[in-house]
Design a protein that fits this description.
Length: 68
């Protein structure tokens, strides 16, 4: 989300730089497909695919730890 441009050029945002390689869509990793690049991933993320969950009205996430 930090990559989304803001229409005000004077606004400065902290960019989040992800490390690691983007997984192959032809051979995705087990569990959460984002876990190889997630700084919060743990063993559960590597094993199990999280379900899409509504954390706020019309705000859905597929993460085991949406409040981190």
């Amino acid at each position: 989300l930090s990559a989304i441009p803001v229409p005000d050029p004077t606004v400065k945002k902290k960019k989040i730089i992800l490390s690691g390689e983007v997984p192959s869509p032809a051979n995705p990793p087990t569990g959460c497909t984002f876990h190889p690049r997630c700084p919060y991933a743990d063993e559960k993320c590597r094993r199990e695919l999280p379900r899409l969950t509504e954390v706020k009205k019309e705000h859905l996430v597929a993460c085991w730890y949406p409040l981190k």
